[in-house]
């Protein structure tokens, strides 16, 4: 054995330099060896790069990319929540409580809307009140973030249009590049009404009437005056603070693409969490943001109108003072204030005169986004925890483009909305459905990237860079909006805007190979509207004398979208559509499952072709 160790290595003999090598030959040899090494390393590097590309390609192949499009308040973000519930129920459940401040804000803003109307009535009954400039309260600087109450039929009953079925106009005319002025949607604009003037107005017992029927008569009473004075100032502070806490994003003039560049799976943050938009400037917070501020604001009200609950406020959560971070403290204090005001808020919402006033003014809060007035007693409590149903109903406007990355979790069947199991796609989908083959298992590990965009006109330019490398687009068209106008441009009917936008998308050359899926959304609201007697033909002249029932209307509108797809697609494409109410999570789970399967199958076909 030792002999074999001692015997020279044949390879070493082979590559050893010649024994009598001259210096010149040696230099030449070393240079040749160095060159050989360089070439070898270059080859290794290429192999490594190819492998990486291959891995990336494999990952890309497996990643499904979906873009959600549609006008503002069409239900895109709500659809994302449904996807999250289906694909990543654990992370959805973990995020529930972080929606609390949005829900508080939604609630506060609904009450403020009512107070605004009351305040206007009081001012009308006592014009001296509104002329006093000293009553003015600064407007919120961050109304961009919170829910926009879209202008609707209640503001305009004359708006008529005929659905667009033939192309006219450029992209800019189609709302793709129109820069609209930043609106201040639904921010309460009236000054708070001071109690003494409210009292005077109440004493005058004014009435706002639209008819002579007593049930249509609004009577401003001292109860309203007291509610106005007790609720308005603290709720404005709640609004200011919550908006500040949520970090109302302002669109950057230099970057129409919002946070897109920064959004990656690793950086993923839920949009409702603070700082969700990395470059967003924080709005200036309202002056009263401290604990003392809250208390001072409420004490001021108390000094004017003594309430039986005044003493409890003082002690609320003060024990934990200083322990929390400032932002938490703000949200907790907002909660405390809402809890204190719970009875008054309920009294206001349940007041029959207030209901009459809202009816006269055609303000249908229950049909607006972020409606929680029927849940005051549940929400305005210290123990309130948002439910998944609350979260899908919460309204937080999207700015720019948000990227959501879901790695399908391994989930128990019970965790999936029960409707997902044992479903039959034919029952739920309208028209040409995506049919299901095989079992409906969630596929753990598959990465889905879903882009949610801001749907307001000023956000639409930011969509364009996302039109490449897509598997599918889910387009949301809220079909209940036939009698409403765009918040950002009150001249434009919302249904008309949706049809024009749809036409732009279907006719896009860049998107010719992309699967389009249409969600004819807000069917529940369509039903409600028609049920209360709104006539579609009054707003959509082409509807003619067709039956004014939700089913016929939905079918008619679906046909309008289908016609556009057939006429304007650059190449033949299938028309996939679903009637949805995406706040109904059970029904939407079924739709989401059908969509998922359809997209995956198409994706697979594409990959196989490649
Ligand atoms: N009743 C009802 N409400 C809905 C439906 N879809 C969405 N909503 C509500 O409408 C509001 C707006 O929905 P979002 O999902 O925020 O709308 P969006 O398209 O993301 O709007 P932007 O972010 O402004 O582009 C939310 O309060 C939702 O709860 C629906 O089908 N029925
Ligand atoms: Mg959104």
From TrEMBL:
Composition skew (Polar residues), residue ranges: 255-272
- Bias (Low complexity) occurs at 306-319
Give one GO term, molecular function aspect: G-protein beta/gamma-subunit complex binding
Note the InterPro entries from the entry: Gprotein_alpha_su, GproteinA_insert, P-loop_NTPase
The organism's place on the tree of life at top rank: Eukaryota
| Compositional bias (Basic and acidic residues) | 26-40
Report residues binding GTP.
Answer: 521-524
Q: Which SUPFAM superfamilies match?
A: P-loop containing nucleoside triphosphate hydrolases (SSF52540), Transducin (alpha subunit), insertion domain (SSF47895)
* Record carries keyword Magnesium: yes
Q: Where is this region: Disordered?
A: 1-40, 155-216, 244-284, 305-329
Alphabetized, the UniProt keywords read:
GTP-binding, Magnesium, Metal-binding, Nucleotide-binding, Transducer
The entry's cellular-component GO terms read: cytoplasm; heterotrimeric G-protein complex
UniProt-annotated binding residues for Mg(2+): 398
Any one Gene Ontology BP term? adenylate cyclase-modulating G protein-coupled receptor signaling pathway
The answer to whether keyword GTP-binding applies is yes
Q: Which SMART domains match?
A: G_alpha (SM00275)
> What's the protein name?
G-alpha-domain-containing protein
């Amino acid at each position: 054995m030792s002999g074999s160790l001692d015997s020279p290595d044949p390879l070493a003999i082979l590559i050893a330099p010649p024994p009598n090598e001259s210096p010149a030959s040696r230099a030449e040899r070393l240079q040749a060896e160095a060159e050989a090494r360089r070439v070898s390393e270059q080859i290794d590097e290429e192999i490594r790069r190819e492998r990486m590309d291959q891995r990336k390609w494999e990952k890309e192949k497996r990643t499904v990319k979906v873009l959600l499009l549609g006008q503002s308040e069409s239900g895109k973000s709500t659809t994302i929540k449904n996807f999250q519930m289906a694909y990543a129920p654990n992370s959805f459940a973990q995020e529930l409580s972080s929606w609390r401040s949005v829900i508080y804000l939604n609630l506060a803003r609904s009450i403020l809307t009512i107070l605004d109307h009351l305040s206007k009535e009081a001012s009308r009954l006592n014009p001296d009140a509104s002329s006093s400039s000293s009553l003015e309260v600064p407007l919120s600087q961050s109304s961009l973030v919170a829910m926009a109450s879209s202008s609707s039929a209640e503001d305009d009953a004359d708006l008529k249009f005929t659905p667009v079925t033939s192309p006219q106009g450029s992209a800019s005319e189609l709302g793709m590049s129109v820069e609209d002025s930043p609106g201040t949607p639904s921010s309460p604009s009236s000054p708070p009404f001071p109690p003494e003037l409210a009292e005077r107005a109440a004493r005058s017992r004014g009435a706002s009437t639209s008819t002579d029927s007593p049930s249509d008569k609004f009577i401003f009473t001292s109860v309203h005056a007291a509610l106005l004075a007790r609720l308005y100032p603290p709720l404005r502070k709640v609004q200011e603070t919550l908006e500040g806490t949520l970090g109302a994003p302002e669109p950057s003039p230099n970057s129409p693409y919002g946070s897109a560049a920064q959004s990656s799976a690793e950086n993923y943050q839920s949009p409702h969490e603070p700082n969700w938009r990395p470059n967003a400037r924080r709005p200036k917070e309202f002056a009263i943001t401290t604990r003392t501020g809250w208390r001072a604001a409420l004490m001021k009200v108390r000094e004017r109108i003594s309430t039986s609950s005044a003493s409890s406020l003082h002690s609320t959560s003060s024990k934990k003072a200083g322990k929390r971070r400032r932002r938490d403290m703000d949200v907790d204090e907002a909660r405390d204030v809402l809890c204190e005001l719970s009875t008054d808020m309920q009294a206001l919402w349940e007041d029959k005169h207030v209901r009459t006033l809202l009816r006269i003014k055609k303000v249908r809060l229950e049909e607006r986004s972020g409606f929680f007035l029927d849940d005051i007693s549940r929400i305005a409590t210290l123990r309130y925890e948002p439910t998944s149903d609350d979260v899908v109903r919460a309204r937080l406007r999207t700015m720019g483009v948000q990227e959501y990355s879901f790695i399908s979790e391994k989930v128990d069947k019970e965790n999936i909305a029960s409707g997902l199991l044992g479903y039959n796609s034919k029952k739920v989908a309208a028209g040409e459905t995506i049919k299901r083959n095989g079992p409906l298992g969630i596929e753990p590990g598959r990465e889905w990237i879903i882009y949610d965009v801001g749907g307001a006109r000023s956000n639409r330019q930011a969509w364009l860079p996302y039109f490449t490398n897509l598997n599918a687009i889910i387009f949301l068209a809220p079909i209940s909006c036939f009698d409403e106008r765009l918040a950002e441009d009150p001249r434009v009917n919302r249904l008309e805007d949706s049809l024009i936008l749809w036409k732009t998308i279907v006719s896009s050359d860049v998107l010719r190979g992309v699967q389009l899926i249409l969600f004819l959304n807000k069917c529940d609201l369509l039903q409600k509207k028609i049920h209360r007697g709104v006539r579609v033909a009054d707003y959509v002249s082409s509807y003619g004398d067709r039956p004014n029932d939700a089913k016929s209307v939905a079918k008619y509108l679906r046909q309008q979208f289908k016609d556009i797809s057939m006429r304007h697609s650059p190449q033949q494409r299938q028309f996939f559509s679903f009637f949805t109410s995406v706040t109904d999570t059970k029904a939407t789970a079924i739709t989401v499952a059908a969509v998922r399967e359809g997209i995956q199958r198409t994706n697979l076909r594409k990959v196989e072709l490649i």
